[in-house]
Amino acid sequence: MVVNVATRLLQISEIFGPTIQGEGLLIGKPTVFVRTGGCDYRCSWCDSLYAVLPEHKSEWRSQSAEEVFAEVQRLSNFQPILVTLSGGNPAIQPLSDLITLGHASGYTFAIETQGSVAQPWFAELDYLTLSPKPPSSRQVTRWDRLERCLEIASHGQNGRTVHTCLKVVVFDEEDYAYARDIAARYPDQPLYLQAGNHTPPHLAEKIDITGILERMDWLIQRTIEDQWYTVTILPQLHTLLWGNKRGV
Ligand SMILES: C[S@@+](CC[C@H](N)C(=O)[O-])C[C@H]1O[C@@H](n2cnc3c(N)ncnc32)[C@H](O)[C@@H]1O
Ligand SMILES: Nc1nc2[nH]cc(C(=O)O)c2c(=O)[nH]1
Ligand code: SF4
Ligand SMILES: [Mg+2]
């Protein structure tokens, strides 16, 4: 049988760390990021367009799982660490081999994805963060696909539990209503509300931390007003610390 090796290569935008996970369920945890290139979405406020738009393709590299894992091991000084797969949409890449390789050496794997593409290998992950996009992103949620992601994760492979959660970026009242809808649809999933950064690299020269914190304050008041006590509200910690800097 002829195996097309190229189809197993990963499109890699950047590999960096260790740093801390700045968002959601694993906020504050030391991690190495593997950021893949290419995305099926075009969120109006995306903070990682260099890993999304085809005009940045020449900056990405095609690498095997072995090459990516060697870089992860080098960065982590061969100490098992949490590896966070992000992008772009990492769900459009063949990441199963990387997860298998890493698990064999004690590494754990989390993914950040919008839930628009469900892959069988989600069952091999340790953490699956689904981040469906609210109206301000100008993207349309495919609920059937989001549900398929959760369904796959509910059958963890090799006795593994895939810890799942939902994370919704909120900029305004419409986004907040979308987040409420998500909570009603998936009452058993931990839900994180993430204050939006309205000054990502392509929309402003300087990051407006005060503006981000004001939105965060509004979001907290808004949830308390609704007596919505099961939700968790967070900023992007890395954005507060390091602004729009890349590779942190
Ligand atoms: C860059 S995305 C990559 C992974 C995947 N495509 C996704 O959207 O989940 C990682 C996380 O950053 C969030 N994000 C992107 N731009 C943002 C912004 N301007 N403010 C707040 N969060 C943002 C996304 O919603 C997602 O949760
Ligand atoms: N420190 C840090 N935390 C993050 N959490 C999610 C990120 C991402 O871009 O997916 C990210 C990132 O780029 N840096
Ligand atoms: S889905 Fe994620 S990577 Fe893709 S455009 Fe939206 S925020 Fe950016
Ligand atoms: Mg980011």
Describe the structure.
- This protein has 248 residues and is α/β, with parallel strands linked by helices.
- It has one domain: Aldolase class I (TIM Barrel, Alpha-Beta Barrel).
- 27% of the residues lie in helices and 21% in strands.
- Strands 3-1-2-4-5-6-7-8-9 form a nine-stranded mixed sheet.
- The mean pLDDT is 97.
- Bound molecules: S-adenosylmethionine (SAM), ligand 2KA, iron/sulfur cluster and magnesium ion.
- Residues 39, 41-43, 46, 48, 52, 87-89, 114 line the site of iron/sulfur cluster.
CATH homologous superfamily title = Aldolase class I
The helix-strand sequence is EEEHEHEEHEHEHEH
Count up the helices: 6
Rg of Cα set: 18 Å
Bound heterogens, unique: S-adenosylmethionine, ligand 2KA, iron/sulfur cluster, magnesium ion
Q: How far is the first residue's CA from the last residue's CA?
A: 42 Å
Overall CATH architecture: Alpha-Beta Barrel
Poorly predicted ranges (pLDDT <50, ≥5 residues)?
A: none
Count of individual domains: 1
Keywords: 4Fe-4S, Iron, Iron-sulfur, Lyase, Magnesium, Metal-binding, Queuosine biosynthesis, S-adenosyl-L-methionine
Binding site for substrate: 20-22, 35, 86
Binding site for S-adenosyl-L-methionine: 45-47, 88, 131-133
InterPro entries: 7-CO-7-deazaguanine_synth-like, Aldolase_TIM, Deazaguanine_synth, rSAM, rSAM_sf
